[in-house]
UniProtKB/TrEMBL annotation, chains A, B:
PROSITE patterns in alphabetical order: NUDIX
Origin organism lineage: Bacteria, Pseudomonadati, Bacteroidota, Flavobacteriia, Flavobacteriales
Pfam families: NUDIX, WHD_NrtR
Domain Nudix hydrolase: 11-143
Protein name: NUDIX hydrolase
Organism of this sequence: Maribacter litopenaei
Keyword tags: Hydrolase
Length: 230, 230
DNA sequence: ATTTTTAAGTGTTCTTTAGACACGTTTTTT
DNA sequence: AAAAAACGTGTCTAAAGAACACTTAAAAAT
């Protein structure tokens, strides 16, 4: 029987914090909550929670995210583990940061209000508790890199989107203007979008064609060696 | 006084495991230890240790690495945190994996023997305990990506190296043959190496010129917008 | 001593990719 | 009727990546 082999080792509290990205009005946003308990009660914070004995980190992150947004099946990735000894003044706590990409149109507005959460443009992120600003910066850097090599942008858009919206999204992620013609022709060369017969009429009376991401085709192409690269 | 605000939360054991890379005889290698305690005593394992209350993860990883190799000032990067509930049969333990790049010529051979450690070609990695094989794979993938965009290869070579050694290193990391002329002219175009007047005589009687990485120049160029890209 | 083998060193050409760049159409607003 | 806003589309140029072969030096083999 091999139990308690490590009884002399220190145990620690382990938190999970989520950077939740959304895209709205041509801007990248993150979802923050007003902290409801001490320490730092009343300050803005990432949404988080403690790891429970019976869950792994992914499950904890999904739980935390679901609790705040009501959403399931969200794109989510472990980012980094923060461990400075005094990062949380109340107790020795480590935190594993996750970032998530959601379709901002889908989240549950009531739940967000109940949790006194709010969307902030990433460029106007307030001062957050502990090392949370550092987490946001790292998440942003990771998102920028990922977006260049994986088609994760679609996670932030509605299922149907216009080319213009897609371009604005990439501009927001990469932090620079892109040439309309070059952008579209590059994306078309990938051949992973489906052009629909519908038009989006929300931003002009002429209307703009809607597209969908063809995930099956993308996966097939990846198997054959295709490499998404913006 | 804000203490014990989280008293009801579960605490866990947190380990640090290191994937230590070296480069020798044109091969990438990793350093493994024969585990000296239960569970899984006698099996091959990454070198690891438990996080102590008074250290952060980086410090713990440095401690573990120093304990095994006698080395300081090693290139090291946090990789990923592993958290499956049953990953360690003895107790609920999470592990934060780090990977390190060392100059294999410099490590302390005696210390390694004392710890019953051994270098394995990465391609002949044995079956390891727990999820350690998964860690090695992730480390390898990370190394491959990093090597493309940061000049970290030099960490694996001696201070002075030949162009051929550098090329063989990149071939080992990227897992493919590179064209000698293209490789050298690309590296020369970066203008971050110093060509020395010395020659390395170990692999031919004609001798091959030795080079050094000019780190100051590299840093200066980075400030000016230079982007290392193999 | 002649030939063969091994490693070092060096440029050019072709192909592919990235980046710059402008105008006609539709529809609404003034 | 003119102006303004959003949509959609193609070509040319520059830069980077990939393919490719021979000469020299020295030692080893015959």
């Amino acid at each position: 029987m091999i139990i308690n082999s490590y009884t002399n080792e220190d145990k620690v509290l382990l938190a999970v914090d989520c950077i939740i990205f959304g895209f709205d009005l041509e801007e990248l946003k993150i979802l923050l909550v007003k902290r409801s308990f001490e320490p730092e009660k009343g300050k803005w914070s990432l949404i988080g929670g403690f790891l429970k004995k019976e869950e792994d980190l992914d499950v904890a992150a999904i739980r935390v995210l679901h609790h705040l947004t009501g959403l399931n099946n969200i794109y989510m990735e472990q980012l980094y583990t923060y461990s400075k000894v005094d990062r949380d003044p109340a107790d020795r706590t480590l935190s594993v940061a996750y970032y998530a990409l959601i379709d901002i149109a889908k989240h549950d507005r009531e739940l967000i209000e109940q949790n006194s959460a709010k969307w902030f443009p990433i460029k106007s992120t307030p001062t957050l508790i502990f090392d949370h600003n550092e987490m946001v910066e790292r998440a942003m850097a990771r998102l920028r890199r990922r977006a260049l090599s994986k088609p994760i942008g679609f996670e932030l858009l509605q299922q149907k989107f216009t080319m213009r919206q897609l371009q604005k999204l990439y501009e927001a992620i990469l932090g620079k203007k892109l040439d309309k013609r070059n952008f579209i022709s590059k994306f078309n060369s990938f051949d992973i979008l489906i052009k629909l017969d519908e038009k989006d009429m929300s931003s002009s009376k002429k209307g703009a064609f809607l597209y969908k991401f063809n995930e099956e085709k993308y996966n097939r192409k990846v198997e054959e060696g295709f490499n998404f690269k913006i």
